[in-house]
Amino acid sequence: MKKVAIVGLGNMGMGMAKNLLSAGFSVAGCDLRRERAEMLADLGGVAADSLADLAQADAVFVMVMSGAQVIGVVAGAGGLKDALSPGATIIVSATIQPAEARAVEAALAGSGLNLIDSPVSGGQFGAEAGTLTLMAAADQAVFETNRDVLNAVGERVFHVGESIGMGQTVKAALQALIGVSFVGIFESLALGAAAGIKGETLYEVFSSTHVANTPFFKNCAGLIMQRKFEDSGSHIATMHKDMGISMSLAHEKGMPLFATSAAYELFQAGISRFPEGDNWAIVKLLEEFSGAEVSW
């Protein structure tokens, strides 16, 4: 039985761990919050106290928040570079800067460890359902060796290239699309409500069109209508961070992103106003201009 580990047992990491267990893998997990590792143990996994306890893993997912955290987990004192045996694979499933993924690769040079740069898309729901989209960049042989592990957490697994950083680059481009799409939903619903249209009418009409007849729109609009602005698994801080990566890549490439820039600024306003909110909390910010509420 292949041994898999996860560093970072938040909503995403825990969902992935459940699917790995269901697929028959031995799963160990480590998190700064001991109670999260104990939750994994209750599910049948192994609670690790430190990265050193993951030494027997064949593959390790790193699902933390920032590039600095990824580099610390991999190459810091007592990190995975020192703990794992040659031939093991580190899978960076966190969303970080492409340059940070390449820094991880450089840090592992000569270690005998393999690296897959594979950010994911699909949020907490996708992590729990095993329906994530994975954008994996790695040597072809390394990718094939770990395909079973990747398939256990993702419904759609794409090998986007062999150069580390390409996975993060695809994710940065995707987040620009997702961020602009979110803002389109927020603004259109807030505009309709400001003009006196019932939320139910907006939802029914929008979702009947080919543009908005999607799970993405229906889930987002439904949470807004239900006024569920916290603890829905899509914290605004994560999207704000991801869009910052999109903007950073655009600046690096000398590429103007007009709509993405505007969307990023709205997320900046949203996180400043509702720091504990989820993405949909931005609607509350827009509602403050009209006094009209988007609800059923």
Count of DSSP-assigned helices: 14
Number of strands: 9
Major sheet: size, sense and barrel closure?
6 strands, parallel
Helix content: 40-55%
Strand content: 5-15%
Mean pLDDT across every amino acid position: 96
**Structural class by sheet pairing and helices:** alpha/beta
The side-by-side strand order for the widest beta sheet comes to 3-2-1-4-5-6
Task: Write the element-wise H/E pattern from the N-terminal end onward.
Answer: EHEHEEHHEHEEHEHHEHHHHHH
Please, could you describe this protein's structure?
By secondary structure, the chain is α/β, with parallel strands linked by helices. Helix content is 52%, strand content 14%. It has 14 helices and 9 strands. The protein has helices at residues 11-22, 34-42, 67-75, 80-83, 98-108, 123-129, 140-145, 147-153, 166-194, 199-206, 215-225, 236-252, 258-273, 282-290, and strands at residues 3-7, 26-30, 46-47, 59-62, 89-92, 114-117, 120-121, 132-137, 154-161. The strands form 2 sheets. Strands 3-2-1-4-5-6 form a 6-stranded parallel β-sheet, with helices on both faces. A 3-stranded mixed β-sheet has the order 7-8-9. Helix 1 runs parallel beside helix 6, helix 9 crosses helix 12 (236-252) and helix 9 packs across helix 13 (258-273). The longest helix is centred in the middle third of the chain and has 29 residues, at 166-194. The model has no long low-confidence stretch (mean pLDDT 96).
